[in-house]
Design goal:
single chain; alpha+beta; globular; about 260 residues
């Protein structure tokens, strides 16, 4: 009887010890998890700080997405700190290896690689309202508030074409993939399409109440391939206005495709 009591007692003590060990192990595991979270958070902050600070929040409350060392930047209301300056425009190259940013207030454009290392910087004749890559990322182009368009090399920042005065009131602008056509949307609700060789307007059309957030050139009206024959002007989650650059006709597609 005494032996049985001792065995039960020992078993109880063993169970208590096991529970304490389980609690201790859980606590240790939780502590390790917390340390890992803190380590990853520090790594993310370090990555972001490589390009100067936390970047923007856009209209959908999307700001910086960190994937390894890749920092995706969305333009928005709250701006980033980069070289102690604020940033109001930012774009990734088509292969997502280079990011170009326009600083606010000092007419400076800078390029960084995906690790946040600055590649080059150059001054521009005014504050850009449009900033993007062209010719598959070989050059960047910008349009200033005064309507001056510049094209610059991503290698050394040197001009790749003479400056071009496209006119004031620019809201958006886009080159075709070949660089043969340029579309410019203006604040007076018109879009002009230029032949880049002659710099002459080949077509102008009204956009009505459509806000020209996205402009792309295509080879056909369906937008299945890139080209120089058609221009699509659309909102992020709104109708699509397609212009035939040969006939000058425009067709409004009211179908709205938007995720969420």
């Amino acid at each position: 009887m005494i032996a049985a009591t001792i065995i039960v007692t020992l078993l109880g003590l063993s169970m208590i010890g096991y529970r304490y060990r389980s609690i201790a192990e859980s606590a240790a595991e939780s502590a390790r998890a917390s340390e890992e979270i803190a380590r990853r958070s520090a790594a993310i902050l370090s990555t972001i700080n490589n390009v100067g600070g936390v970047v923007t929040v856009d209209s959908d409350d999307l700001g910086v997405t960190v994937q390894g060392t890749l920092i995706r930047v969305e333009t928005g209301q709250q701006v980033a700190r980069l070289t102690s300056r604020t940033v109001h425009l930012a774009k990734f190259s088509p292969d997502e290896q280079i990011i170009v940013i326009a600083e606010t207030g000092n007419q400076t454009v800078r390029l960084f690689n995906r690790k946040g290392v600055e590649l080059l910087g150059f001054s521009v004749p005014g504050e850009p309202v449009v900033l993007d890559f062209m010719l598959e990322g070989a050059s960047v182009f910008l349009v200033t508030r005064e309507g001056i368009l510049e094209q610059r090399s991503i290698i050394n920042g040197a001009p790749t074409a003479p400056k071009w005065d496209v006119g004031e009131g620019v809201l958006n602008s886009a080159f075709s993939e070949t660089g043969k056509r340029l579309a410019v949307a203006f604040s007076d609700k018109r879009v002009s399409v230029f032949d880049t060789a002659s710099r002459r307007v080949v077509l102008t059309f009204d956009t009505g109440e459509l806000h020209p957030e996205i402009m792309k050139f295509y080879a056909d009206a369906k937008g299945s391939e890139t080209g120089d024959s058609y221009l699509s002007v659309s909102e992020e989650c709104g109708p699509d206005l397609v212009a035939d650059l040969k006939s000058g006709r425009t067709v409004l597609d009211n179908a709205i495709e938007c995720g969420g």
